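To whoever is on call:

I kicked off a structure prediction for a single chain this morning and the downstream step that reads the tokens threw a length-mismatch warning. I double-checked the sequence; it's 151 residues and nothing unusual in it as far as I can see. Pasting both halves so you can look.
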Amino acid sequence: MAASALPGHMNIRHGKKGHVLGSVDIRDFESDYGAPYILIHRPILHNILHKHALNAGAEVRVNSRVTEYLFAEASVIVNSTERLQADLVVAADGINSFARAALLGSADPGTTTTGWAGYRMMCEVSRIKQNPALAQICTNTDLDTNLWIGP
């Protein structure tokens, strides 16, 4: 948790003017869903998962592409030849997920192009507070996450 942030609200802001269009209170996620809403930089999460997997005795492989999922047996076929079985298979293969398509089959809606682009950024709050144009987004007592939308 030391490398993460627990935001209080998710604010949707106007892309050009910056004012809040809507806000979702996410402080009750832990009581509602059994875990808090956590923000963490992806490479840091990868390092944490890698460290804990190794400590638990997992074998970490590279150059291993899952070519088939055998969901009922918690197994995968790797590189079209090798079958691996585990207590848990985690498929984190991104927006154009092969795993999702394999699980849902023809019911998979796939992705829909919106014409929008998404950019992520994380920076030290102290640096934002030093900038007069940005300081107002860090004035509350809760650490919020902010999403700007616009053309």
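Update from on-call: the warning came from a stale cache, not from the record. Cleared it. Sanity check on the structure: The first strand starts at residue 9 and ends at 14.
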